[in-house]
Design goal:
Elements: H1 16-32, H2 36-43, H3 48-64, H4 73-83, H5 88-105, H6 109-119
């Protein structure tokens, strides 16, 4: 459920500010989601003040080629997965919310690239492992765009 009306998309994810806003909107929805919210809020116990800048840095690296992202999402997701299993349903819901966020807020080549990067995963790999555990082919070399959910 969206917390407020969103403007029609007019711009692309072509600046730090646009990417930070995309991350903020997306994770506002994730934290309120019945399936994903508990994984982030109760299991991973994410400190959003610390984590949102890391996620924005991840996407700035992925979309704009900027340095600055440091993290190990594979390890972080494995730690969460050890506490409560990530399932294909978690990934599908994450992907649906991500696409909705992009489609409601941005248009252009970087918006499309963000969708493509999130989609860059073989559906046959989705069962029984956290998203970061089977992702990583999108050119950033650091795993899934979920970022490092647990502080390592």
């Amino acid at each position: 459920m969206r917390d407020s009306p969103r403007p029609d998309p007019t711009g692309d994810l072509d600046s730090d500010d646009e990417i930070a806003e995309m991350v903020r909107r997306f994770y506002a929805d994730v934290t309120q989601d019945d399936l994903l919210g508990p994984m982030f809020n109760e299991v991973a116990r994410v400190d959003w003040n610390e984590h949102l800048p890391k996620l924005a840095a991840f996407w700035c690296r992925a979309l704009l080629g900027q340095p600055g992202y440091q993290g190990n999402p594979f390890r972080a997701h494995m730690l969460v997965h050890a506490q409560r299993e990530f399932t294909a349903a978690h990934f599908e819901r994450w992907l649906t919310l991500f696409h909705e966020t992009i489609e409601l807020g941005w248009t252009g080549p970087n918006a499309q690239r963000a969708r493509d990067l999130a989609d860059d995963r073989d559906p046959g790999e989705r069962q029984g492992a956290p998203p970061a555990a089977t992702h990583g082919q999108h050119g950033c070399g650091d795993g899934h765009p979920l970022g490092d959910v647990v502080q390592a």
